[in-house]
Amino acid sequence: MLSTTAQYALRALLVLASEPAERLVLGKDMARLAQIPGNYLSKIMITMAAAGLVEATRGSNGGYRLSRPADQIHLIEVVGLFDRQVAPKSCFLGVRTECSDCDPCTAHMAWKSVKAELVHFLEGTTLDKISGVPFKRARPAKRKTV
Predict the structure, then answer these.
(1) What secondary structure does DSSP assign to 76-90, as a single string?
(2) Does domain 4-135 correspond to CATH entry 1.20.1250.20?
(3) pLDDT, tens digit, 9 for 90 and up, residues 57-73
(4) Of 84, 78, 98, 87, nearest to 120 (Cα)?
(5) Alpha-carbon separation of residue 57 from 11, 26, 36, 130 (angstroms)
(6) What is the pTM for the complete model shown?
């Protein structure tokens, strides 16, 4: 339901949310952890920085961090940057350019409720609610001495 770009953006933000607020994360580390091609991630991060979701610091000590706490970033803000219409208005079956309650396609009523649930989820869910272990910074393994 979400574009690849929106999914990548959420994964990048989850990496940042798994770090302490003051810590900067290098783009290459974020790309590795979130499994996003580096060049693609760079374009996504530019868009999110312009929207005020992340702070970007250039230079040898640079990197990215969230611009505000994860519990204040709603998923709709992120998805809306990359998916202009979170719940497309076009006909679900693609047989019409648009369908409506007055002139529905055969899937209209079922799709209408799914769209409403998706928007409700994205509006009501913050980044902290979906963050967790998969994006924790990989720690180097301790060497065993023999």
Answers:
(1) HHHHHHH-SSSS--S
(2) no
(3) 998 888 999 999 999 99
(4) 87
(5) 20, 10, 20, 26
(6) 0.81
